[in-house]
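Why do we care about 3D structure at all? Because function follows from shape, and shape follows, mostly, from sequence. That is the central idea of this module. The next example makes it concrete: a single protein chain, its amino acid sequence, and then its structure expressed as tokens.
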Amino acid sequence: QVQLVESGGGLVQAGGSLSLSCAASGRTFNMAFMAWFRQAPGKERDFIAAISYSGGSTAYADSVKGRFTISRDNAVNIMYLQMNSLKPDDTAVYFCAAGRPMTLRGPYDFWGQGTQVTVSS
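And the structure:
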């Protein structure tokens, strides 16, 4: 099993920045890929970004490309999501995920509990 804990969410004004972290523990050898997803109220959970173990492969949703950056530090088992130029539409609960999916976009085996990000206009 892999345990994932997100942190760093909060309230920010449009145009601002936030940095999310996802700390992993447990059988971390299962974290070949890690990813961020988000779920807005009344909507499905959407893929945001993913990264391979080495960091050499990344993928982003079109809606965040150029504004968000995913990274990971395998030495401390933490994944990050730097979010810049935030918009009200970015308001959602952000989840981290890990596993050995068929593709960077999923499906993932392990999920965190989520952290709320709210962007005010």
